[in-house]
C-alpha cells in the first residue's frame, strides 16, 4: 500500500497488480482443466468384439448412450427429443459427417437405431458403433 502526503491529507491506494496476477493464474487453471471435466460425462460399458478396428478420432461426431437412458453428443448432455437439432448444429461445423455411436451394451437396439436414423436423415456419410477389442 502506498501512501501519498498531500496538503489536504493522506491518500491511500491499493496495489492492484497482485490481484490481477492471481486472477489471471486462476483463469488459466480453469482453461486447462475444463476439457478434462467435459470429456466424458456418461459412463458407457462398450460391448466387446474380436474384429474391432481402431479408427481415427478426428472429425468424428460421438453420440453416447448410457444404460440409464442418458444421451450426450460430444460430451454435451442432450434429451432424446432434441437429438436431431443437436446433430444439425454439429454437422454445420467442421465435421465430415461421420457419426460414432458409443452405446452401453445394455442399451436397447431401438435407441441405437433411432440415432442411426436421425444421423442418416441429416446426411451422415459414415455411421459406426464403438466397441471394446477382445483381449
Return the domain count: 2
Using only C-alpha atoms, the radius of gyration works out to: 25 Å
**Whole-number average pLDDT?**
79
Sheet with the most strands?
Answer: 5 strands, mixed
Report the uncertain regions.
none
Number of helices: 3
**CATH class wording of the largest domain:** Alpha Beta
Can you put this structure into words, describing what you see?
The structure is a single chain. This protein has two domains: 2-38, no CATH class; 48-133, Nucleotidyltransferase, domain 5, CATH 3.30.420. Helix content is 33%, strand content 26%. It has helices at residues 17-38, 83-91, 109-121, and strands at 2-6, 9-13, 48-49, 61-65, 71-73, 76-78, 98-103, 126-129, 132-133. The strands form three sheets. A five-stranded mixed beta sheet has the order 6-5-4-7-8, with helices on one face.
SSE order and pairing:
Layout lengths: L1 E5 L2 E5 L3 H22 L9 E2 L11 E5 L5 E3 L2 E3 L4 H9 L6 E6 L5 H13 L4 E4 L2 E2 L2
Parallel strand pairs: 3-9, 4-7, 7-8
Antiparallel strand pairs: 1-2, 4-5, 5-6
What's a quick, concise take on this entry?
This protein has 135 residues and is an alpha/beta fold. It has three helices and nine strands; from the N terminus they run ββαββββαβαββ.
Give the tags:
Nucleotidyltransferase, domain 5, 3 helices, 5-stranded mixed sheet, elongated, single chain, 2 domains, alpha/beta, two-stranded antiparallel ribbon, about 140 residues, 9 strands
